[in-house]
Amino acid sequence: MQNAPHPATTTRRARASAVKWKPCLRPNQRSGRSAITRSPSIGKTQAAAPAFTALSACGPSPIARTRTAASPTSTERGEPVFEPEARLHLGAEAEVTAGTWLGLPAVMKQRRARGWRHPDLDERLGRQRMLAEARILLRLHRSGLPVPALLDADVDEDRLVLEHVEGRPLIEVLRDAAVTDVESLLRAVGRAVRHLHAQAVTHGDLSTNNIMIRDDGGVVLIDFGLASIEYDLERYGIDLHVLDEVLGASHPDRPGAMAALEAGYLDCEHAGETEAPGGMVPSAADVLDRLSQVRSRVRYHG
């Protein structure tokens, strides 16, 4: 007579078979490298915590917090994970709210549904973009680039919780008449953008609103909702051209701003051709050459 399986073993098998989920990966990624995981016990998609043991210069370490499926905004003891305080921004794609996350200053980015899209398509695209943003933030944080630390990722609820970056957006700094020496600041911005590109990441919306300046002068890039992994030289040139256009249109009283930024871009320690997990990233000099070509095309068609 065959022995019956132990009840605990049966329960574990049932749980394992109930969760069948695979992360959305690019063709050149291995599933073992995914930054997003799913907990079989609660059925929620979360950010996997990297092996950080202390707070870094880029902000708090990314943390994966267990939450109940019935109450994704609370801990298992019923304590609120994120406590909202004030709305910072209401955009077409997302609403950004300031508050605290387990006592840490944080912002919550809640994706907004696009009513003109088919609901199924909107949900799929929104989830893909949120997963991509979370993975890119983790990638950049691990590279040492100052970006907001990813504290929590709840893809089922279409929200991310990020470190709240203290400081002023670059647009305010450049419009402040009391700030006279901006060349060194813009060089630092250029170095930060090159560090970003050296990780094979294009921002997609580089503007003076999405660059924060800390009180100590440190540069932090924010809002990676349109960021992507790229190896095409053209994409890097376009990324810089967006910032070039913004500086010319919004800050005409800061002549030489883009020239200072380009000098910092070339002066970055990552200026050479860089090897990334999926290929080679063009050198800073090649990207600036392509930027010149993009400018000439825009002037010609304009």
What features would you describe in this structure?
- This protein has 302 residues and is α+β, with helices and mostly antiparallel strands.
- The chain has 2 domains: 137 residues, Phosphorylase Kinase, domain 1 (2-Layer Sandwich), CATH 3.30.200; 134 residues, Orthogonal Bundle (Transferase(Phosphotransferase), domain 1), CATH 1.10.510.
- It contains 7 helices and 14 strands.
- A 5-stranded antiparallel β-sheet has the order 3-4-5-7-6, covered by helices on one side.
- Strand 1 and strand 2 form a beta hairpin.
- The longest helix has 25 residues.
- It is globular, with a radius of gyration of 22 Å.
- It starts with 6 loop residues before the first helix and ends with a helix.
Task: Name its key features.
7 helices; globular; 14 strands; 302 residues; alpha+beta; Phosphorylase Kinase, domain 1; 2 domains; single chain; Transferase(Phosphotransferase), domain 1
